[in-house]
Amino acid sequence: LMLNDDETDLGESHILGCPDVPAKWNDDAVFFNDEVFVGQINLKDVSTDLLPKHGILYFFFASMSKPYRGIVRYTNDLETLERVDFNEEVEFEANFNQEYKIEISESNNDIELLGKMPKFKHYKPAQDEVCLLKLDFTNYPNIDLFNGIDEQVCYLIKKDDLLNGRFEKAYLSLTLN
């Protein structure tokens, strides 16, 4: 995936900024007050048999839980998307309001969907775990979301949960304190 400072259209893949979610999610109050939006991936941009061909994957983390808890949501409802001014109530020191468009590319390993499992300093992945999303912001000094973390941040999921579309079972690979 490549980072691009261009503003995104509704439903496009991007990290940080505001998520584009189905209106029903706002009406049903599915979000917690301490959730920080990390990014969204429109699956039309991805070619793999492991993910649905249509819809959006959303990545968040709960900033008040220690360690932080990774949250992944999926929707195939692209008809009622609305951009939500997110992160307003979160008490978390980071510049997460700047939005970065991401484009699928084999040449950038800083943000990777379903890539090779990295080696972690503080976590030993199990055989059945898959790296759903890898984030390495060390090459982007303007992105201080995971400032001070000296390894890649990954959302992991068990292969069986991935194959069955149970994205809510995904979790963070390391203890973010």
Write up this protein.
The chain is mainly beta and 177 residues long. Helix content is 6%, strand content 31%. The protein is built from two helices and twelve strands. The protein has a six-stranded antiparallel β-sheet, with no helix packed on it. A four-stranded antiparallel β-sheet has the order 9-10-11-12. The radius of gyration is 15 Å and the shape is globular.
Gist of the model:
The protein has 177 residues and is mostly beta strands. 6% of the residues lie in helices and 31% in strands.
SSE inventory with pairings:
Elements: E1 2-4, E2 14-15, E3 20-22, H1 23-27, E4 35-42, E5 56-62, E6 69-75, E7 81-83, E8 100-103, E9 111-113, E10 129-135, E11 153-158, H2 159-163, E12 171-172
Antiparallel strand pairs: 1-8, 2-4, 2-8, 3-7, 4-5, 5-6, 9-10, 10-11, 11-12
**Structural class by secondary-structure content:** mainly beta
Helix run count:
2
Order of helices and strands: EEEHEEEEEEEEHE
Which sequence of strands runs across the widest sheet?
Answer: 1-8-2-4-5-6
DSSP helix fraction: under 10%
Low-confidence stretches: none
Shape designation: globular
- What is the strand content? 25-35%
Radius of gyration: 15 Å
Q: How many strand units? A: 12
N- and C-termini, Cα separation: 27 Å
Largest sheet, in brief, is: 6 strands, antiparallel
| Nearest-integer average pLDDT | 80
Features of this protein?
177 residues; mainly beta; 6-stranded antiparallel sheet; 4-stranded antiparallel sheet; 2 helices
